């Protein structure tokens, strides 16, 4: 019931407070029943919601469910006053007629007179036509979906019926099995009883034999007595013929009677034992037949018993069919990098448009890729100050037009250097996307004041060329050094970074200083006129026996492939007045790296491969080492996941360089050792090579072919100088020491540059 609902006649005459009181009284019902994405198009056309409001309602991470989004939409409409309330009720009348009736107490209608006039008649008619068409389409889709679901339900019901029939059969078989089990138990009891009876028969048989022995003994004694009697009688009768005949006759008669009695007794015993034996054999045959029958029944039951598990399997299959995989994070358009994630704060993003001529004169920025880039100061009276930009706002994105092309630069986690370069490119009208983060801005300022940090930048790079020390605290670095860059815009310098060398075994900053930034090093090689730095680098290459330059190229173009994402920008040629690179394949003085800490013993990969195959078995003979040969148990597979099961063991890998990236994808980071070769060092291994069917020339050819490929590895490797060992024993000793040292180091890995 709706006791206090307004009549149709007075709905248009209601004031703002009355309308919102009516809506608030039904706020719970509206929040539960309305989907914002359905009514927002009408509210947008009625101009009570903006595009920014729509994005915030539908995309804000703080609004975790539909009710919260609908409630937040009502709060935004409340700020529009009476128009917001009228537009909301009209959208309910179009899309939720039942709810409209519950809220207002009147029936919905699409007559133009029933609308407030917030939308023109022609636009309203067009919207209603689209709404009706959309509803019809949704109804048709809903009917089709209902048909599909009905067919699916019917098939599922049929399958469930079949499964229930199989379950019923299984229950019958189970009951039959239980009955057979009970019958088998009774048979087993009968067998036990028969065994007991058989034991009793053996006991009685033994007693009978003992009794028969006693009887035989008594008969023997009786015969002796009879013999004595006969002897005395023979002596008494004398030697007369007539007496001797009588004596022998009596003797023969007595023996015949005794033998007849014995035969009769033995015959009776044999018959009795034959009967007992026949009875026992018959019982054993019956018992064996019953046992075979029970065994056959059990086998038949076991064959059908898995039917009981079909329901579980069916449910598991249904569950598995609904599993979805999360999409993988897309890589930036330039060089893929892994670095500490910039601070993210879910909040409202404001888009402000103004004239951005000389934008860096209108405002200054602080921060970096670790903290985000913030507006620090705004010039009073400038266009940025006029539109209300204030300090503490994070610059998320900048859009502008250049040479009649719309460009967008994402500064969400760019360095301070890249952010300032991007803002310096703005000419004319620009659009800044800002996110209020006053607390994080104040925390950054506190760190800057206390000298805890010099900027908001923090990332790690691998140096690809040796650089000499210079004036003003310029840091001397070698090729393959790891640097921690903490400021890309140090004060009092130009085109320099402030960085620190990193401890090889700990994430600890060591010696610090400035180094030329990425742009300066690239331009020094590409632009004529920048000769001094290139000459110094070439001189270091000539004087230093160790590797001084690592040739790394990338197919991704841009001013600096480390960061800024520029959408809509095409490749430009390099000249003395622009800060972009000109070659499709450019030299990279630095590459971004991320640290990894292998939790177990790392595998060992020896190069060149010809020498590695000779030394692999030697290393595998050491304690704590194992040769992992392809094709054998516990050996290298496509995923290499078995390596993590070999705790405390270094796996010696008889593989080539092509396996390194596959191992890294499986989070396995091998120790790569390259033993340099010369003609002199190859002669030291002549006997070993000949024993394995190899020659010195083959070893040198393999070394020359694999050494250039080492620069393409995404990780560091250790090189053994050819003159640092004299024979195989000293080489193996050096390898053991190298492996022990490399195991303690942090593994720095580059992303895929292509």
From TrEMBL:
Pfam families: CARD. The lineage of its organism: Eukaryota, Metazoa, Chordata, Craniata, Vertebrata. GO terms for biological process: regulation of apoptotic process. GO terms for cellular component: cytoplasm. One of its GO terms (molecular function) is CARD domain binding. Residues 363-438 form the PDZ domain. This is Caspase recruitment domain family, member 14. It comes from Amphiprion percula (Orange clownfish). InterPro entries: CARD, DEATH-like_dom_sf, P-loop_NTPase, PDZ, PDZ_sf. Gene3D superfamilies: 2.30.42.10, Death Domain, Fas (1.10.533.10), P-loop containing nucleotide triphosphate hydrolases (3.40.50.300), SH3 Domains (2.30.30.40). Keywords: Coiled coil, Phosphoprotein. It comes from the Eukaryota. Residues 139-183 form a coiled coil. Residues 15-107 form the CARD domain.
